[in-house]
Amino acid sequence: MRALIQRVTRGAVRVEGETVGEIGAGLVILLGVGEADGEAEAAFLAQKIAALRIFSDADGRFNLSLLDTGGAALVVSQFTLFADARKGRRPSFVQAAPPERAERLVEGFAAALRGAGLRVATGRFGAKMAVEIHNDGPVTIWLDTDELRPG
Predict the structure, then answer these.
(1) Which of 47, 62, 69, 80 is catalytic?
(2) Taking CA 79 as the corner, what is the angle to CA 106 and CA 107, rounded to the nearest 5 degrees?
(3) Which residue among the candidates 6, 9, 44, 79 is catalytic per the annotation?
């Protein structure tokens, strides 16, 4: 599972002009589900992100997590995080999970964040979305469960 997380002052997702998800301060999480991913990866990554200390304390140091700040998360499914552009000019997405399994795992990831005590908004799976991100910092971090767990 792959996540591109951005610390934001606000974020929103619109589908056909309708706002389907919106947050104030917190994290926008662009989430990709890979062919080999399952519920364990979704739960692990949700816990990692909820506790990741990327918010500043009173001294300006990254010592606070989303849980500490009371911020929210906006989860946006993005299969293109599994793009393979090594050959040719058109990326391949064969490493991305099939949509029906990916949707279930994105929902499981969002549920795990909620279970940790976070407020969570989401995009709409499979829809053409306009994502508004007001990056704070800017702070942008790439996480991949294949790289996070000890081998």
Answers:
(1) 80
(2) 10
(3) 79
> Residue type for 14, please?
R
Nearest alpha-carbon partner for 15 in 105, 129, 106, 111? 129
Ordered by where they begin, the domains of the chain are 2-141 (3.50.80.10)
Q: Are the beta carbons of 8 and 133 closer than 8 angstroms? A: yes
* Digitized pLDDT (tens) for each residue of the chain, 151 residues in all: 999 999 999 999 999 999 999 999 999 999 999 999 999 999 999 999 999 999 999 999 999 999 999 999 999 999 999 999 999 999 999 999 999 999 999 999 999 999 999 999 999 999 999 999 999 999 999 999 999 976 5
Q: Which residues of 1-11 are buried (b: 16+ CB within 10 A; e: fewer)?
A: bbbbbbbbebb
| Rounded Cα–Cα distance for residues 8 and 83 (Å) | 25
Q: Across-strand partners of 14? A: 19, 130
pTM score over 0.70: yes
Is 80 among the catalytic positions? Answer: yes
Active site residue 140: no
Is 79 a known active-site residue?
yes
Active-site choice (78, 109, 122, 145):
78
